[in-house]
Specification:
Elements lengths: L8 E5 L7 E2 L2 E2 L4 E4 L6 E2 L18 E4 L7 E2 L2 E2 L3 E5 L7 E2 L6
Parallel strand pairs: 1-9, 4-6
Antiparallel strand pairs: 2-3, 4-5, 7-8, 9-10
The chain binds iron/sulfur cluster.
Iron/sulfur cluster (SF4) binds next to strand 1.
Length: 100
Amino acid sequence: MMTLDEMSKVSECSVTGCAYNQADACHAGAVTIAGPAGQAGCATFIPLTIKGGFDQSAGAVGACQHLECTHNSDLECAAPAIQVGLRGSTSADCLTFAAV
Ligand code: SF4
């Protein structure tokens, strides 16, 4: 089991239309990566005109539902950091997803 100190960071997110995004950085306290198999996306994405989240720039991955990713450990992300962007599968794709 991982500890909270080991939570993966969102090192970069290019989804500028998300309310949690400022200057390609995620400001959400903890994002959830979810979606159908093979379509790992940020379920915390929300397209609002306001900006929200915390002041610090590094969002973290609170949970990942993609057991078929090589980085998944007990439904958490064990990669040191992830990148989120637009690959065309979802509104905000996890670019670090790697199928087992
Ligand atoms: S990682 Fe998710 S919540 Fe954070 S800015 Fe990107 S789309 Fe928004």
